[in-house]
Write a structure and sequence with these properties.
The chain is of the alpha+beta class. It has a single domain, classed as Porin (Beta Barrel). Helix content is 16%, strand content 58%. The protein has an eight-stranded antiparallel β-barrel with strand order 1-5-6-8-9-10-11-12. A two-stranded antiparallel ribbon has the order 2-3.
């Protein structure tokens, strides 16, 4: 009986040592610098105010808008992380593409039209990770994004349909937060959210400028063509 108990205890000790060695071996990999490439796919949204009430000097009653936002979004990235035990930190260059958003309106009930809004960005980010275990981690990102905005409208002014498109590129702060799983020494997965703090698209000023100048002189202010951007996506990363 004593021999059996001793054997069992020895096996448990051996198993514990093997398990500990495995964890330490995994953690030993997480040292030094490693470049990586990755991609992400999921939900994105250009946060324009689709349910908005605005007025202009030419409207006798306030105008209510409606529309749709949100859809499939994707991104690609490349970066470099330096691993030090439970921590990893470095930088990342990323490109993100968002689904188009639409705002519909009907001025005075007789001038139907719509806005279409498109956006993408190139972001330079500082990245930090904390590993709870050799596999599970949380990640935080912060930096600046070069946001490429494009807004267009189409309005029927009784006689014909008038169209206009303008672009406005800005630099805006961006933050991200997520959780990850390191499947192997090279392959990792994550679920991350990202938000770009751009000024909200000003439908009233943009359309108001167009109306006050007349639809044939289509020069609304570029400063109104921005909007916050949101993305929640699944990501995959390959470390070299």
């Amino acid at each position: 009986m004593k021999i059996s108990r001793l054997t069992s205890a020895s096996l448990l000790l051996i198993a514990f040592n093997v398990s500990s060695t495995t964890v330490l071996a995994d953690e030993a990999y997480m040292t030094g610098g490693h470049p990586y490439v990755g991609g992400a796919f999921g939900y994105g949204d250009i946060l324009i105010p689709t349910n908005n009430i605005f007025t202009t000097p030419f409207l006798s009653t306030p105008e209510t808008t409606s529309g749709t936002t949100g859809g499939s979004a994707y991104g690609v990235d490349a970066g470099y992380l330096y691993y030090q035990t439970h921590w990893a930190y470095g930088g990342e260059l990323a490109y993100d593409h968002y689904p188009a958003s639409t705002m519909n309106f009907n001025l005075e009930g007789a001038l139907p039209g719509n806005f279409d809004f498109k956006a993408s960005d190139i972001a330079l980010l500082a990245v930090g990770k904390y590993f709870f275990t050799p596999q599970w981690n949380i990640v935080a990102k912060a930096g600046a994004a070069y946001v490429m905005n494009q807004a267009s409208y189409s309005v029927n002014d009784y006689y014909n349909t008038v169209n206009n498109t303008q672009s406005n590129n800005i630099i805006a702060p961006v933050v991200g937060l997520g959780a990850g799983y390191q499947y192997s020494s090279h392959l990792g997965f994550s679920l991350e959210g990202q938000y770009i703090f751009a000024p909200e698209f000003n439908a009233q000023d943009w359309l108001g400028n167009a109306l006050s100048l007349g639809f044939d002189n289509k020069t609304p202010s570029k400063s109104d063509i921005t909007s916050p951007l949101l993305a929640v996506r699944l990501g995959i990363t390959y470390s070299l």
